[in-house]
Amino acid sequence: MEMFSLIHVDTHESVTLSIMLALRTKLAGFVGRQTSRTLCNSYSSSSKGPRESDKDDLKIDIESLEKSLRKEFGDIKPEQIDKNFMNFKQREEKKRFDRSMIFNWKSALATLAFGGVGLGALLYMRKQKMDEMERQRKVMAGKARIGGEWELLNTDGKLEGSEQLKGKWVLMYFGFTHCPDICPDEIEKMISVVELLEKESPPIPIVPVFISVDPERDTLTRVKQYCEEFSPKLRGFTGNREQVNKVAKTFRVYHSQGPKTAEDDYIVDHTVIMYLIDPDGHFHDYYGQNRKDTEIANVIKMKVLKHILAQKKTFF
């Protein structure tokens, strides 16, 4: 029976547990005797109810059990039983606490494991940031090799260049006036960017500059007429072959004259890029043929604002 399940205790267990074991033993014996009698009576065909002798035996067994319990535990005070019972409860609670501590240690180890993963993630993110900073440093180093001081003839025949344009944002494009399609498209885009930025509040003034890489055909008059076809804001520059090559090299612009036709016409292959120059005369950014005017205008707007904030921080 479940009520008589074995209880494991050591030899130093409390009196309370001794009472429990004693009761278990005596009740087991009592129930066992009663069970045997019942089984024996069940095989008796003439048995129609409990016999008087059975009742007497049951009474004797109960009296014997009571007498035995009084003899063994009659001298134990109730407060001693309560004390031993409380000690037993404390030991049980300590066992549960010890088990919970094992669980807590497991939780702590799990936390440390996840913490290790988090630390690894932080280290990885830091490495990524350092790599990005190194990449930016290399990009800036590359930018430092693009641009610089330059000087050519403007459409009025006067020498002008980076020194005269300082204090202004400049959007520069290299091309040639006989270009059938690409140059006109890119110059129109450049003028559109300038006009979009002028509509900002406050306006962001940008000076559009066209530099010819075909000095043999692009005379001062030709360049002036060409620029006026797009916008009166567009400033045109040219020079002799040596001067043009020097400026093109400064901005890493590739240009090469193609084969001539029967009419003595030719195409000039060249880099199709707009260069953004800041008010200090330094190369700041570039935009390829695939960029739209609105996109370029938004990028320049952000760069101008950042430049203004950087100048204010430097001032203070």
TrEMBL record:
Q: Which PROSITE patterns match?
A: THIOREDOXIN_2
A Gene Ontology biological process in which this protein takes part is: mitochondrial respiratory chain complex IV assembly
Write down the Gene3D superfamilies for this protein, in alphabetical order.
Answer: Glutaredoxin (3.40.30.10)
Spell out the CDD domains in the cross-references: SCO (cd02968)
Disulfide-linked positions:
C179-C183
Q: Name one GO cellular component term.
A: mitochondrion
Q: Does the keyword NADP apply?
A: no
- TM region(s), chain numbering: 107-125
The record's annotation in InterPro entries points to: SCO1/SenC, Thioredoxin-like_sf, Thioredoxin_domain
| Alphabetized GO MF terms | metal ion binding
Q: Which UniProt keywords apply?
A: Copper, Disulfide bond, Membrane, Metal-binding, Transmembrane, Transmembrane helix
Binding-site residues for Cu cation, renumbered to this chain: C179, C183, H270
Domain Thioredoxin, which positions?
141-310
Q: Which domain of life is it from?
A: Eukaryota
**Family classification:** Belongs to the SCO1/2 family.
Name of the featured protein: Thioredoxin domain-containing protein
Recorded source organism is Steinernema hermaphroditum
